[in-house]
Amino acid sequence: xxxxxxPQIAGGEPAYAAAHEEHGPTGxxxxxxxxxxxxxxxxYMITSIVLFYIAGLLALGIRVQLTTPHGTFISFxxxxxxxxxxxxxxLYLFAGPFAFGGLANYIVPLQIGAPxxxxxxxxxxxxxxxxxxxxxxxxxxGVAGGAADFGWVAxxxxxxxxxxxxxxxxxxxxALVLTGFSAIFTGVNLIxxxxxxxxxxxxxxxxxxxxxxxxxxxxxxxxxxxxxxxALVMLFADRHFGAKIYAVTGCHTVAGAVDVHxxxxxxxxxxxxxxxxxxxxxxxxxxxxxxxxxIFPVFSRKPVFGYKGMVFATMAIAALSxxxxxxxxFTTGTVLLPFFSLMSLLIAVPTGIKFFxxxxxxxxxxxxxxxxxxxxxxxxFAFLMGGVTGVMLxxxxxxxxxxTTYFVVAxxxxxxxxxxxxxxxxxxYYWYPKMFGRMLNERLGKLHFWLLFAGFWVTFIxxxxxxxxxxxxxxASYPTGLGWHVWNDVSTVGSFMIAVSFLVLxxxxxxxxxxxxxxxxxxxxAHTLEWFTTSPPPHHNYTHLPLIRSxxxxxDYNHPDAPTIRYDHGRGxxxxxxxxxxxxxxxxxxxxxxxxPGAAEQVxxx
Amino acid sequence: MKIESRFLIGIGVFFGIIAISxxxxxxxxxxxxxxxGATTLGLVPGAYYFFWHRRFQGSKYFFxxxxxxxxxxxxxxRDDATIADGxxxxxxxxxxxxxxxxxxAGAFVLLLAFVFGTWLALxxxxxxxxxxxxxxxxxxxxxxx
Lengths: 606, 145
Ligand code: HEM
Ligand SMILES: [Cu+2]
What we know:
The complex is a heterodimer of chains A (606) and B (145). Chain A is mostly helical. Helix content of chain A is 58%, strand content 1%. Chain A has helices at residues 27-32, 37-65, 76-111, 120-139, 167-196, 209-240, 266-283, 286-300, 307-321, 337-362, 371-393, 396-402, 406-436, 442-468, 484-514, 553-558; strands at 2-4, 8-10, 13-15. In chain A, strands 2-3 form a two-stranded antiparallel sheet. Mean pLDDT of chain A is 87; it is low at 1-21 and 567-606. Chain B has helices spanning 2-26, 29-56, 99-116, 119-141; one strand at residues 92-94. In chain B, helix 1 packs antiparallel against helix 2 (29-56) and helix 3 (99-116) runs antiparallel to helix 4. The longest helix of chain B is centred in the first third of the chain and has 28 residues, at 29-56. Mean pLDDT of chain B is 82; it is low at 58-69. At the A-B interface, strand 1, helix 4, helix 5, helix 6 and helix 7 of A face helix 1, helix 2, strand 1 and helix 3 of B. Strand 1 of chain A pairs antiparallel with strand 1 of chain B, so a sheet runs across the interface. The structure holds protoporphyrin IX containing FE and copper (II) ion. Copper (II) ion is lined by residues 278, 281, 324, 327-328 of chain A.
């Protein structure tokens, strides 16, 4: 039997009703066979956070090794495995799956008023493929020869069997094939859900920015991931089936000359990888932009500033991000420097628009400094600095100077930490009450934030200094006398501050589990649809829905005297000169939206 | 439908422009090919949506064949739709299913076969086949509570 959702009219109020509760298996079997997007989303988030902790421990290992010159904590081989697995787990198994597989899976159907994802069984398949890939990647620590050790980018020909024999590398490739398919399936699923399962009145330009960003991310995934998967399959063919796609050995003629037709191309891998890799960077950024764009308006008590500008900036970032891949290859000498430099610099423009709009959202708002809000502000600072150094790196003369130094490591950690950690855990603090029906402790949350914020700068600022003074990345040992020692020590201290801050988060989870504080449906007085239903939401999400007349249906429902007006429409003026509200002029939240044909918002009566 | 189709066609047009300008500035075929791929990724579904939008003025369902009257814009595309406008069957959703995890397990084993030996492929392929049959039969019967 299948569940059929029939909207019903209940008590005069238009209502959706889940026709049937699920009477399926219970216990472990229930989890294994589930097709509920909320259970799948939660499984994704929990798995990826566990992997985040594992990758964090690996980072601590890296930092301990670098505390002293000529460190002896681990061997060079182990060091290579450590940074490879740290990077691989953080990027492939934590940041992307957390945001796109987890949060989006859970929140997007709720935000658009859908009962589930469009293809629930495909959704379950995505999760299990992801789990399988993650397990496969972790298992490589136990195989003969150890885990993969060629960096998260697996540059060929370094990653061919000549230089990296061993099962660990093969399993690394296969793990990424699994998670790659998982990402593609989730992308298809989310896009279809957004196109076909929106609630009546939820037009595209009333969708929350979070949902918009996930839609654009889904498209980016469909552009980028197939390229990665194909490149990996070719790499595997090179390794085991004697293909010569990337390999540059064994192509000498008997006379000793190089036979170019028997040779692969060394930079081909880099082209393919970065055609995936740079969009991937934005696959890891846009969802997190979406998270903070939900949080800033709620805790500024205002609608988002420049809604349409935000949407178009997201699209522009995504579009440009696919035309910049070779800025990672400036120093190969085989790419068109002006084209890729210009395209990279252009991305700063839509990103700047986003910053402008975030600040505009907070401007003259009534700011409420919850942990989620603090984390989002932390994101602003971190991403700003990472973004500025990114603009520097987009300029070839600078990149030639600092390429493959710790300057780059500092840059991408500021970007990725800003998004995946600050914004990601902002999302955890923000949506946790919705998912579990109980609050997280704010005092512990703030302790978490401040430790993390301090530790973040102490860890990564020294890396800029190290990079500028010439320390290369991916080295397990460095000499004395270059002034690198002290900065490495500072960085290690910072990394332990970060580690402590994440212990505080564990304590917070424990406290909320042991001493629950009920959250209610809408503890933050938030704006979007997911806060209209119960916490946690029932099977198939909604028993009834409010009228949708703006991108803030729940707010409109709860504040009939202050319906949403959007700046960028400018209709009806701005009653307070700057204020977002109509100032209680008595216009209802619903009803007379037909005043102007096609008007999306309430027009104030004044 | 209209905005969805514009969104996708916009992607296609953008990548078309980038692909052309990249080809004529670099004459590099690998990157150009990937950009052309991205162009079709936008244009094909975009054209599909455009087609259905025009033909039915946005029918909610995938109707094949002609209908005489325009079904009208979908409630989710209308500014003034009320929840009651969406009355009717939204969609049918499967209950719980054992086949996704079975399929994933089969894929897991199949990929390991490439690493550890072909005999594993036998197991992997069998599990995948069973899961595919299972999931298809389930769709026909309509799933299980
Ligand atoms: C606990 C905080 C973290 C610390 C202390 C840390 C530390 C480091 C260090 C020292 C390296 C350089 C290793 C080397 O080049 O020799 C590194 C590499 C890297 N980290 Fe982190 N990291 C942290 C969090 C993260 C996060 C949150 C992400 C991404 C979401 C991330 C992604 C990466 C990547 C992609 C690499 C490059 C690996 C490679 O070179 O192949 N890290 N990390
Ligand atoms: Cu890049």
